[in-house]
Amino acid sequence: MRMTKNILILSLLLLFLAKNNASKFKFTNVGCESFNQSLVVINTCRLKAINRDKTVINIELSLKEMVNRVMINGQMFKRENGYKPWLYNITTEGCQFYRRANDPVIKLIFNLFKSYSSLNHTCPYSPGTMRLWGFYLLPQSVPVPLPSGDYLVAVKWSIHNFLQLSTNVSFSFQEDFLN
Ligand SMILES: *[C@@H]1O[C@H](CO)[C@@H](O)[C@H](O)[C@H]1NC(C)=O
Ligand SMILES: *[C@@H]1O[C@H](CO)[C@@H](O)[C@H](O)[C@H]1NC(C)=O
Ligand SMILES: *[C@@H]1O[C@H](CO)[C@@H](O)[C@H](O)[C@H]1NC(C)=O
Ligand SMILES: *[C@@H]1O[C@H](CO)[C@@H](O)[C@H](O)[C@H]1NC(C)=O
């Protein structure tokens, strides 16, 4: 009896802690645009709500030509009367990406995506479909410290020296309020 009561109290305490420790992360929008239909065609680009707390990203592209040079620019924005550039603006050569998997930042990003994406190997990328499917993030796997707010990550893909593709993801993040 006493044991049961202790377990009950412990469970309630754990539940309380879990609830209060929970930061919230949620994808709110996704957008894709191809600027060259003879190179990239967008088949799917949307969010899918799995349940109240989980929304995943599904993107499928058709690549029409062999690709062996990709420059990726990722710019982060935070919403404050419209989206304002925020802290991170990173440009990297996509084909070198996986070759530099020892770089801690690259490794971190790679680990977030690798099991959800067919874009998980080095160049060249052959014509065919490329997918990022069922992708989601847990608040605790957000790789950088973030203040609460609404964010946009805008990624520009330059293939063979021209801007060919734009993919945007927006999300809201609420910090654990005990911190
Ligand atoms: C992504 O966001 C940028 C910056 O706000 C915007 O210029 C661009 O048109 C957006 N692209 C898509 C596909 O929504
Ligand atoms: C569009 O893609 C085709 C096929 O790869 C390429 O030949 C053409 O140069 C591209 N156009 C631009 C502006 O990059
Ligand atoms: C982000 O970096 C790119 C490439 O270096 C540059 O063209 C762009 O203007 C930068 N964006 C901002 C908001 O500084
Ligand atoms: C790359 O993606 C393919 C297809 O989604 C998957 O079978 C493979 O295990 C992935 N490789 C890595 C290193 O994650």
From TrEMBL:
Where in the sequence is the signal peptide annotated?
1-22
Per UniProt, the keywords (alphabetical) are: Signal
Q: Which SMART domains match?
A: DM8
Q: Does the keyword Signal apply?
A: yes
Pfam families per record: DUF1091 (PF06477)
Recorded superkingdom: Eukaryota
Record's InterPro entries? DUF1091 (IPR010512)
Keyword flag Cell wall biogenesis/degradation: no
Q: Report the protein name in the record.
A: MD-2-related lipid-recognition domain-containing protein
Q: Which gene encodes it?
A: Dwil\GK13829
